[in-house]
Design a protein that fits this description.
Blueprint: E1 9-12, E2 20-23, H1 35-49, E3 54-59, H2 64-75, E4 79-85, H3 92-99, E5 103-107, H4 109-113, H5 115-123, E6 129-131, H6 139-150, E7 158-163, H7 167-178, E8 184-189, H8 196-204, E9 211-213, H9 227-240, H10 249-261, E10 271-274
Parallel strand pairs: 2-10, 3-4, 3-6, 4-5, 7-8, 7-10, 8-9
Antiparallel strand pairs: 1-2
Helix pairs in contact: 1-2, 1-6, 2-3, 6-7, 7-8
Bound molecules: pyridoxal-5'-phosphate (PLP).
């Protein structure tokens, strides 16, 4: 399932840009979406190499990673279990997880923090169980994300990506370094006060002048929006036909637009935005529109 992949680079017509391109990782798969597909690719390979048949992971109730893991497990003939942060709830994302056969264990926030302990308690006697960290954060995930860069057939002055944990960003940066490109990587953290991302990226690869963090496009924090962001999404999607989710990709495209308006990125410069998928993030945001 990780062989064939459809992720074209498309040129997008959106003022004021004349050279804005999008890497459509959102088209890879409807459920194993975007960077979650990239991240899971080598995690699953490792699990299989170790003869593990049961994927165990962690996430919030609206986690793209949980749906992706559940879908990937069911297609690979593996079992899956997730520890879901917080009290029991029902929503569209968890419905998909459930349909893909994932077992959901709702876990209070205190216990959820001790992930390794939770895993040990529940799976002490299950040598088939394979621990996958929240969001798939791991060195294997960075290998998969570095392949985004390897697939590019043209060079860009700037590449943009939204960040939660920063693992995808680390993979992109190592890809840029490995290919010896001169491209600048711009990271848009979607969490407030996300300077920790620098440390996270440094775990996997050497920091360099290729990297620029933009800490002011979080719109109040994780999964927070403003009327301005919502109206940006409507305008962008109506004009380009490309859907954005309010949690990740909308914040990235807003940042590209804003930095260009400010003249920090030149209108003529060649910019590539990584569309990391996550369109199910539109679920649960109905009342915002
Ligand atoms: C999970 C996710 C991200 C963040 O990826 P990290 O590797 O955690 O930084 C970005 N975009 C989308 C759509 C996601 O689902």
């Amino acid at each position: 399932m990780f062989e064939e992949i459809f992720s074209p680079v498309q040129k997008i017509a959106f003022t004021p840009f004349s050279n804005l391109y999008v890497k459509r990782d959102d088209l890879i798969d409807p459920y194993i979406s975007g960077n979650k597909w990239r991240k899971l690719k080598y995690i699953l390979a490792k699990a299989k190499a170790k003869n593990k048949t049961h994927l165990v992971t962690f996430g919030g109730a609206y986690s793209n990673h949980l749906v992706a893991t559940a879908a990937a497990a069911s297609r690979s003939g593996l079992k899956s279990t997730a520890f879901v942060r917080g009290e029991e709830v029902k929503n569209e994302m968890l419905l998909l997880c459930h349909l893909f056969g994932m077992k959901l264990i709702f876990t209070d926030r205190e216990s959820y923090r001790k992930k390794y302990q939770l895993f040990d308690i529940h799976f002490k006697n299950d040598d088939q169980a394979y621990f996958i960290d929240e969001g798939g954060a791991s060195v294997e995930a960075t290998f998969g994300c570095a392949e985004i860069i390897r697939e590019l057939t043209e060079t860009y002055e700037h590449i943009f990506c939204a960040a939660g944990t920063g693992t995808t960003a680390a993979g992109l940066l190592s890809g840029i370094q490995k290919q010896g490109l001169n491209t600048k990587l711009h990271i848009i953290p979607v969490l407030k006060g996300a300077s920790f991302i620098q440390t996270e990226i440094a775990k996997y690869t050497t920091l360099s002048g290729h990297l620029k963090l933009h800490l002011d496009y979080h719109f109040g924090g994780y999964a927070k929006t403003t009327p301005e962001l919502i109206s940006f999404i409507k305008n962008f999607t109506a004009k380009t036909g490309v859907l954005l989710d309010p949690v990740y990709t909308a914040k990235m495209f807003y940042a590209i637009h804003d930095l260009t308006k400010q003249g920090i990125i030149g209108k003529e410069e060649k910019v590539l935005a990584i569309h990391t998928g996550g369109l199910m993030g539109l679920f649960g945001m109905m009342d915002k529109f």
